[in-house]
């Protein structure tokens, strides 16, 4: 019963409220988009706080230690304290940086993840902006992040940063291709790029069962797109200190983290949209709880991988992409096509 | 299009240069043209300091050379002085020394393994190795009250006998050690990515290894069967039955696997030593004022980094006239440039890791 959903009820009452004060339905729509935007940004910030703590807890769990546990129960306020510390740090700009490029990079990096949230289908009728090209929009917007890495790398006037920035461009541009190809399999099955339609079509069977290969490729490519282990060459700590982030401190540095966790959530949410049936689940819980639950499971998988694997080398990274992932994803598209053709030929 | 190489200063402040090593890299893109190690940031002038210290005062400095294998360093220096003075060390002390040196070797190799995989990105592996090393440090803590620079092995024996329950604790550790090794082999060594990162990288031929007077795991990974414990057994090492693990290719992978094998062999030696250890005194009759007769002596031992040698000149006074240390980590580090050339920036760190320098020893 979607109308029992608390979020939808809040949305409906807000809409009524706006209808009373604003002239015309268009103005109400705009106002509702603003509400959605604020909700998304709030989600990103609270999520980052939760995820940073979760990552440290998961890391502790993997490494037989406790993780943060001093501040509040289970160390829940550790991230809050860290954020306060970062906010109150001196805004230090190293000598010789390209002032504007350097200062803009963290902001630019933060933009794509926020934009991606617009098409995430949190629940039935709970898509901030239900674009009919939602998935295409996700792919297009998330590739903007590459520019931010290059800006940070180039603007920092530091050799480690430049190496990191170059690696970022090479890696993210390459891995976008298998990412898109893996998504294509699902798009072929549904015949739609609209995220809500894709989820709707999974009411019977989740696409992870129909597209297991695409799911694995998506996982790998998404890990590479978000620069997480084993693909964190961009900030490969033991080689190039922190890559493009080397010269940043305080809140600018925190912006990179915020963006990283925002995009981690975004790719996990897209994974649960495309492959794990989105908001579908037993009806004793509202749809958005199922959606968030599946997303957090995906995030845990990414964290699990991060704290288990070593890092690839840059040539191995490229070989993996061009020699394995792209051929396999192409083959997957072909097989999916044959499958759909055969299914239709049988009169399905 | 005109291209040019550029220089990258790696260190002395860098997350993975094993301390304060500075490497000047000449890079073509990410390919290494030249890697020049710059040492000396941790230079304390230990050799010179020793000339103005009495022999008992010299001994703590040995702990601070290769601080990861302190026991082995102290063992080497003590045996050097004892050899010059002609001191006979009690049986029990000899066994305790061997046990301590070999446990220390395991601990040192755990740091080697942990930092190597950690630098390849697997931080969890690092934590696992450090966690297991803690057990050895606890044993040292029980025996001498220190966890890092022990000053436990002294001229003429060891400073005090093993406390009650130590042997049982050590046996308990050895029982768990097989499980630790299995974890390393499954989780770290068995990892495809780690294998891809290390296999076939930085191959060192046996000829070059010998020509550059490499020693320890670096030399044995290239297939040269040279271990001071076997070649010129010192102390009571000829009483133990152990193998010398050898590599075949001489790449980074072999250098790691040789060290893994050495850990198992070290545990084997400790087991035998615990079984054979007699009761008795742990300190020989050594004069209060240690004055070795005039003369010079060279004595070398196998520490975890390689062939550690002490060259001591005595003029009969209570202070060494000259003490020179042949530091294997320093000698092995010379290979860095040769091994790194033509590989990628990302390979420099594991190559440096497999050479296993400890800057306390390199800079001395």
What does this structure look like?
The complex is a heterodimer of chains A (348) and B (364). Helices cover 69% and strands 0% of the residues of chain A. With 348 residues, chain A is mainly alpha-helical. The model of chain A has no long low-confidence stretch (mean pLDDT 85). Chain B is α+β, with helices and mostly antiparallel strands and 364 residues long. In chain B, helix 4 packs antiparallel against helix 14. The longest helix of chain B is centred in the N-terminal third of the chain and has 29 residues, at 91-119. Chains A and B meet through helix 7, helix 11 and helix 14 of A and helix 4, helix 5, helix 7 and helix 14 of B.
Q: What is the number of E strands of chain B?
A: 8
Q: How would you describe the shape of chain B?
A: globular
Major sheet details of chain A: none
N-to-C order of helices and strands of chain B: EEEHHHHHEEHHHHHHEEEHHHH
Give a quick set of tags describing it:
heterodimer; A: 348 residues; 69% helix; globular; B: 364 residues; alpha+beta; Cytochrome-c3 Hydrogenase, chain B; three-stranded antiparallel β-sheet; 13% strand
Layout of strands and helices, then pairs:
The complex is a heterodimer of chains A (348) and B (364).
Chain A (H helix, E strand, L loop, with lengths): L5 H16 L2 H39 L15 H10 L11 H18 L17 H9 L2 H11 L3 H32 L4 H6 L6 H4 L1 H14 L11 H4 L9 H25 L12 H20 L7 H32 L3
Chain B lengths: L5 E5 L11 E7 L2 E8 L7 H6 L3 H9 L6 H16 L5 H29 L3 H22 L8 E2 L2 E2 L7 H24 L2 H7 L7 H6 L5 H5 L6 H4 L20 H25 L18 E9 L2 E9 L7 E5 L1 H6 L1 H6 L4 H11 L3 H5 L1
Antiparallel strand pairs in B: 1-2, 2-3, 4-5, 6-7, 7-8
In short:
With 348 residues, chain A is an all-alpha fold. Chain A has helices at residues 6-21, 24-62, 78-87, 99-116, 134-142, 145-155, 159-190, 195-200, 207-210, 212-225, 237-240, 250-274, 287-306, 314-345.
């Amino acid at each position: 019963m979607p109308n029992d959903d608390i979020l939808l009820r809040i949305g409906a009452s807000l809409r009524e409220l706006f209808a009373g004060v604003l002239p015309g339905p268009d103005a109400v729509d705009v106002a509702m988009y603003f509400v959605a935007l604020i909700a998304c940004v709030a989600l990103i910030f609270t999520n980052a706080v939760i995820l940073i703590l979760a990552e440290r807890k998961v890391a502790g769990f993997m490494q037989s230690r406790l993780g943060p546990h001093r501040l509040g129960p289970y160390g829940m306020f550790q991230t809050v304290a860290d954020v306060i510390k970062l906010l109150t740090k001196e805004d230090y700009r190293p000598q010789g940086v390209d002032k504007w490029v350097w200062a803009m990079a963290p902001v630019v990096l933060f933009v794509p993840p926020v934009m991606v949230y617009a098409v995430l289908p949190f629940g039935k009728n709970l898509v901030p902006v239900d674009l009919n090209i939602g998935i295409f929009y996700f792919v297009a917007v998330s590739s903007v992040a590459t520019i931010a890495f290059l800006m940070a790398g180039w603007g920092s006037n530091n050799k480690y940063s430049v190496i990191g920035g170059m690696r970022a461009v090479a890696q993210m541009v390459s891995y976008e291709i298998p990412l898109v190809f893996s998504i294509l399999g699902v798009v072929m099955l549904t015949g739609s790029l609209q995220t809500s339609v894709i989820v709707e079509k999974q009411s019977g069977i989740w696409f992870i069962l129909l597209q297991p290969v695409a799911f694995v490729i998506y996982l790998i490519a998404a890990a590479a797109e978000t620069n997480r282990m084993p693909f964190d060459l961009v900030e490969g700590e033991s080689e190039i200190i922190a890559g493009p982030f080397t010269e940043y401190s305080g809140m600018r540095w925190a912006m990179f983290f915020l963006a990283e966790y925002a995009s981690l959530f975004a790719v996990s949410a897209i994974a649960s949209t495309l492959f794990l049936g989105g908001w579908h689940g037993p009806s004793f819980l509202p749809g958005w709880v199922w959606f968030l639950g599946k997303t957090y499971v995906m995030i845990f998988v990414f964290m699990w991988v991060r704290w288990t694997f070593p890092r690839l080398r840059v040539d191995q990274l490229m070989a993996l992409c061009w020699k394995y992932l792209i051929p396999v994803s192409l083959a997957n598209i072909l097989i999916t096509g044959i499958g759909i053709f055969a299914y239709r030929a049988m009169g399905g | 299009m005109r291209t040019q190489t550029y220089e990258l200063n790696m260190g002395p402040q860098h997350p993975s240069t094993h301390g304060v090593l500075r490497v000047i890299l000449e890079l073509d893109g990410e390919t290494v043209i030249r890697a020049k190690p710059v040492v000396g940031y941790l230079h304390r002038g230990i050799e010179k300091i020793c000339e103005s210290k009495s022999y008992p005062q010299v001994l703590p400095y040995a702990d601070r050379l290769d601080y990861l294998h302190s026991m082995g360093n102290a063992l080497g220096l003590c045996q050097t002085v004892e050899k010059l003075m002609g001191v006979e060390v009690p049986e029990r002390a000899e066994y305790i020394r061997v046990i301590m040196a070999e446990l220390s070797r395991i601990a040192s190799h755990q740091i080697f393994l942990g930092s190597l995989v950690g630098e390849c990105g697997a931080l969890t592996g690092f934590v696992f190795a450090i966690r297991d090393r803690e057990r050895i440090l606890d044993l040292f803590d029980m025996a001498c009250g220190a966890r890092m620079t022990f000053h436990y092995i002294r001229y003429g024996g060891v400073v005090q006998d093993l406390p009650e329950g130590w042997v049982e604790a050590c046996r308990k550790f050895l029982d768990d050690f097989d499980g630790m090794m299995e974890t390393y082999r499954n989780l770290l060594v068995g990892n495809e990515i780690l294998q891809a990162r290390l296999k076939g990288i930085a191959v060192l031929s046996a000829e070059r290894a010998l020509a550059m007077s490499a020693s320890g795991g670096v030399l044995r990974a290239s297939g040269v069967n040279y271990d001071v414990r076997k070649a010129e057994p010192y102390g009571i090492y000829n009483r133990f039955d152990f193998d010398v693990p050898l590599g075949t290719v001489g790449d980074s992978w072999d250098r790691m696997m040789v060290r893994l094998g050495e850990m198992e062999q070290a545990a084997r030696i400790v087991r035998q030593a615990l079984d054979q250890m007699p009761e008795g005194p742990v300190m020989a009759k050594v004069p209060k004022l240690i004055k070795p007769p005039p003369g010079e002596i060279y004595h070398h031992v196998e520490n975890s980094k390689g062939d550690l040698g002490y060259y001591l000149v005595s003029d009969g006074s209570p202070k060494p006239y000259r003490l020179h240390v042949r530091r294997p980590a320093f000698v092995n580090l010379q290979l860095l440039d040769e091994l790194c050339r033509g590989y990628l920036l990302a390979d420099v760190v594991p190559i440096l890791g497999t050479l296993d320098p400890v800057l306390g020893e390199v800079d001395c």
